[in-house]
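ENCODED BACKBONE
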Amino acid sequence: MSGSSAGSGAAPCRLVHYFVICGIDTETGLEPDELAALYQWLEADRQGTDPDAAATGENLEQSPLRRTFKSKVLARYPENVEWNPFDQDAVNMLCMPKGLSFRTQAEPRETQFHSFIITKEDGSRTYGFVHTFYEEVTSPQICSAMQTLYQMHNAENTSSNPPSSSSSSSSSSSSSSMDSLASSLDEADSPASSSSSRRPGGYDSSRDTLYVSKALCLITPMPFMHASRRFLSQMHRAVTDSSAPPLPLESYVHNILYEVPLPAPGRSLKFHGVYEPIVCQRPGPGELPLADFPLAETFSLLGVENLVQVFTCTLLEMQILLYSQDYQRLMTVAEGITTLLFPFQWQHVYVPILPASLLHFLDAPVPYLMGLQSKEGTDRSKLELPQEANLCFVDIDNHYIELPEDFPHFPNESEFVQELSEVLLSFGISAISGAPPRTRTPGSAPGSAPSTPGRERRTAVLRQLEDDGRNGNLAGEELAVLELLQGNATLERLQALTKRTGVTVARVDALRARIKSQSIEGQGGRTAAEEEELRNAKLNVQLREVFASRFITMFADYEAFVIQSAPDLESWLTNREQMHNFDKASFLSDQPEPYLPFLSHFIETQMFATFIDNKIMSQWEEKEPLLRVFDTRIDKARLYNVRAPSLRSSSYQRCSVLKEAAQAIEQRLMKIDHTAIHPHLLDMKIGQGKYEQGFFPKLQADVLNTGPSNNKWSHRTATTQRRNDRHRQQSEHLTLDNDLKEKYMQEARSLQKNLRQPKLSDLSPAVIAQTNWKFVEGLLKECRVKTKRMLVAKMGREAVELGHGEANITGLEENTLIASLCDLLERIWSHGLQVKQGKSALWSHLLHYQAREEKLEQQAESPVSNVPERRKSESSIGMPYLRVSLIQDMRHIQSMSEIKTDVGRARAWIRLSLEKKLLSQHLKQLLCRQALTKKLYKRYAFLRCEEEKEQFLFHLLSLNAVDYFCFTSVFTTIMIPYRVVIIPIKKLSNTMTTSNPWVCVSGELGDSGIMQIPKNVLEMTFDCQNLGKLTTVQLGHDNAGLLAKWLVDCVMVRNEITGHTYRFPCGRWLGKGVDDGSLERVLIGELVLSTAEEDSGRGCRTPPLQRSPSQIRRISITSMSARGSKPTSAQIQEGIGEAVNNIIKHFHKPEKERGSLTVLLCGENSLVAALEQFFHHGFKSARLFQKTVFVWDFVEKAVAYMESADQMGDLQETAEPRGMTCQSLCHYVNAINSTRRNIGKDGKFQLLVCLGARDRLLPQWLPLLVECPVILRMYEDTALLRDRTTVNALIGVVETLHDFPITLEASLVKGIDL
């Protein structure tokens, strides 16, 4: 982060690049701020009024002292630095984000310090540190211009307003949703009360002294915040002190610009300000990079828990908006959070201080981290932001945060917070827990911030106490507590009293001791400021080490999963987009369960992708500095921790290097490595460098624009430069041309990174349009990447064979991909919104559409939707149509009481549409109402770019090629209406039956319970809690009446919300004395394709679920008629192997993705079906003039023989285990026979196989059946069951199932008492 500009060979080692002065230009006088005019132009455009009229009108109702006037860069030294060109507009805008501010002698004029950052388009950063103070206006022209403005203002006010109404109320009542964002244009920092008290007099040049703000600024390549702050405050003190400074100011500026080097890595440096020396230090190559912003302040502002939540949002690349009145707070929190990301780096828009003219960037449909200055007394509830579905809002001044819905927690969050709190406590900072984060809920104003402008200044402290979001834990350091205790006589007396009664006041004593020890420690000849700086530096590094150690634990073995596929850098850069760089599925399967929700999201982010890219590129070029430090840390952790698996456990591991880290810094600051040249007199003409108290003088440019030519240190720079040049020329011969490489790099990195950084200087409408166009292109590209990723991941092996890379997708990963698709759709729908309503732009658009359609429907009294109905496919004969209707799907979502927010409803609707394969169709229908889209969206919005919109819908259409259950599997507790249709075989039996039929539907999440079907009805609907994917249907009847026998072809069941239809083939009779005498059958389901899908998805679908054996196989097995060709013995053996193999594969999948085991045990090509074929081979089943014999008959006879042999004592001689096995087989068969269920003979055989597989008894039972004499009567000589070799092979295959815990669905084993 820090060293990108300073590290390259060309950038010399200077601590400061520029010294800049900003303020009022007396030549041009008072100019209204153009940026304010541009803002008004944008705002007028947003509201649809004439922008040009808005831009010309002056803002007369605002008091002139409150208006924004243009500031200018008055001087900069040197003129230009070649390796860091000066960006005048950006520096001016960020030095004085509100423009010039005026005061009179009656108002407070405190000095202020703030920092800023300029991120260039290539991602390199430059830091600015600004000291702002007030200087008396001496120019008579400006004083008289201000007087004239006041007279115009007063005249305007008296003519247009009755005296009672204040001008501010008229401006604040504007309905614009962005008014509250314009705070920096409307108000300066002073309290409203003082401005109202001054209004009657206003400004009178004869009576009042006018002051204007002026800024001194240092521009540095690295964030040396403390050093810059101290230097600037000494410079200011030099002009306000009664006595002149020791040397002319030029000497000090010249010294810091040209004679103070950057400290070398791992070294410290001392240089001299105007009055006292200043020390700064830089971390060594193996340490965490430089970060000089005080993290203690960030933690006290937000509280530890809140900070960890915001940190998590940053890692997951959400949109983060910081909100505070104080620029320095915005910068401190933004830099604090990004510093903690080590070894990762924020890859998106980063603007810690968002100038008012860039407010339209809040509309950006990309992740961002921005800081917005709040106006005093502005209520958070009035702050309307363009999109909030994925926004983390951080109100710094009120210590509270609003989080996006359902985002995962950071792993081991509570232990992590605990460790951080302990580090803070060890430095005497109370660990504030922060206000509980507010997730957005409907009906309440978005966390109204507890500040109202009406209260008096003196109650501010009380208000902070009573409304402090940190639950009354005062942020104050404990020193303040101790001062209060010691300074209060009553409290002192109470304390003495408690001591006398034997009660110890341990906390106070501990405080005393700690503060005393700190004061002793601090007397090593250092000033209080140095002491404070050392303490801050030590605390900073310890907090950062705790964060870094979390990543070292989580990614200890990341290297093992990096895919190094390219032979050289050029081919890697060229094919970057098509390549898989990281084996995500294997990495996740290796992680502890609690980490998965967070990690599965995090490894999809741009910052993680860039980190892996850097790792791969380190094969061919020098390692990126952060990566080098991180890899070294991991190697060290491995050395200390020889048992690598413990790195992967979910138990929390505390950071072990806190002491060393703090010691390294302390040693550097105690023992200074390098002292810079002292400031000295320059070669100036006599009379130059004059000094006038209270005014910052005009410095002499001729001595400040060039540095000394003879100091040893610039010579060192020159030799380094020559060496680096030589090295670069050699490497250019070795690698590909650098420009080409840079082009590739930019392209590679721009993947998913549409616009890295807004350019602050040029803000013409044309540039804004260009920016929006980049956003549109970026969104389309992101959509293409996401849909491709979802398809490739889902299509599994087919994709691998086509050369797309990794195969298996976990349910978790799928959920992550779908969540990120939901987020992308929200961002697309938020882009270019005219007026924002509700938190979710997509749901708001759907509601507008619904209202319009329902209105049209009432007028025409016609059906809901004119979308053509799905054609009825042959396979779903008997099921009534299910109308395809966007409105109907919305109503389903609206009726779900479990979902409380608009964002939640939008996500549920996306999931439902995706599962129904209607997402693209629904969105196309939504967007075809062009009048509505025009009303809701600006011209530049993504949804109004026709060509891109078409491509976007096409990408979404490609998702129809795979099956998602992303709605069914997520909303598991909702009530769902199901429809059941029973289809009899009309040719061979009665359509109706006189008996009382019943049905029970089971799925992966539960069953419906037994439901009676009304007589003579073949179709019924029922409501039931979500059953998940359907697995079995139990169908039966009570055999009552004359026409009780019933031949059922299949049962169809449809989920009326998702439209998923399941077919449960039967093809058997239910009735006594027919078929196998069954009155109840367990049927296994298959998902039915709609015709439209069959047409579109052929050849690229995921394979269909297995189902219960078809009618033809059942009948051919039982009657053994010659109609079906009998399977050969080889085919039967192969079938058994395949069935067992499928069960083993089932258990090797992660638990959440296994699907139904029942299908593999009892469906088509299942274990039961394969064993049935084995037992039917050579079976003498069809007898002339006798009823059909079933395999179950053979089993019963074998058991009867064993029981009689047992009674006669024949089995006594057999070994003990064999006797036990006989008993178990007899026991199971009798239990199945004695059940009250009428499941028929084939059903009983199925049950025996399932129970035998579950209880690992099948291999023991087979030899008993083979050795039983009954076999000779019932099987031919060629039967497989009479071939010992084949039977032994079968036993071996079935034994492989013993390693797995087979559990049976309740519908299979109901009523069996074992």
In short: The first strand starts at residue 18 and ends at 23. The CA atoms of residues 961 and 1097 lie 5 Å apart.
